[in-house]
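Quick one: structure for this chain?
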Amino acid sequence: SVARSTRNFYRITGPQTVTVIPDTPAKRREYEEEVVQTFYLSNADVAETIDLLRLVIDLRRLAPVTATRAISVRDTPERLAATAKLISAIDKARPEVVIDVELLEVDRQRLRDYGLQFASPGSPGIDGFATVDESNLTLEGLGALTRSNVFVANLPGLFYRLLKRDQSTRTLANPHLRTSEGQAAQARFGERVPVPVTTFAPIAAGGIQQQPITSFNYENIGVNIDITPFTHHNDDVSLDLSIEVSSISGTGFGGLPTIGNRSIDTTIRLRDGETNILAGLIRDEEREVLEGIPGLSDIPLIGRLFAHNQRQIQETDIVVTLTPRIIRLLDLEEEDLRAFRVERDTSTGLDISAPLPAPLPLSETQPTAPTADSPDGAVPIIPFPPTPPR
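Got it. Here's what it folds into:
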């Protein structure tokens, strides 16, 4: 405090000598002690730590050692002590969370298929044609045509269909996902379906892009879950949740699959061990087809006897439960929460946090004369003997 109030700073230049020097930038650069220390990181990112040290402690001479995840710093002992405290406070292992996921998928299908079906070979419905032998055919001979002169192709067939089908599928999965805070955990339930992708490339250099090149992208079809946890100091866990349910709903142009998609993106906060139920991902699909002979199939009451009736109902329901369990919290100690002094820039002065040396016993307190190595403006301090107890 005395040195700071008189705009001076001190250095211990001998076993029993403390030298007081005017606090100016030139004297600081000349007499300030500097040391080099290397700090090894176990968990913190090297680049983020360097940015933090430059911003908070105003370190200028430091360099990363990427191979060993270390940072070498050159500065005063006081600033290196502050650097060590700051690195100790931030170089902590990330909290870890285990997420119990239970997936229940229920798929129900009902089919009713009955009635008459007319079909020609190779195509549904009635499709046929007849030709007449035109050789030696005259107008006078039209009345004498027989079956031998007429050729009929693609005679339709008649089928009667009667089918009832009830199908129920239940899928249950119970994975346990362990991940660190801020790291996404992924779960995939389903199949990977190839989808063709066509691009065009020039046949020759500089030509028009005419050569088609077909490649395949594999799409995840089923239930896809992405979870990113964040822990809180009161044992709460926030989950950034993304759920996508996809299925092949049909065939589109060129035989390419049509993919149906349902997705949810949300953030929930749960206690340690609390279970959240996510339901309502229901998909109901009802399809009814009526095929028959025009006119006959439209007759009331008896029209269905001359028609093919098909009714298909598909119901899909998905229920997901999530239960986070904290495995490791942030290892905070009391020392990490304490404030500490940091040396200011030498161009504007310095906060001296280092205490004065302890007074020596009376038998060892001898005055020390100035030496030829004493700096200009420096005054040696002669320690006083301690006050005897009363």
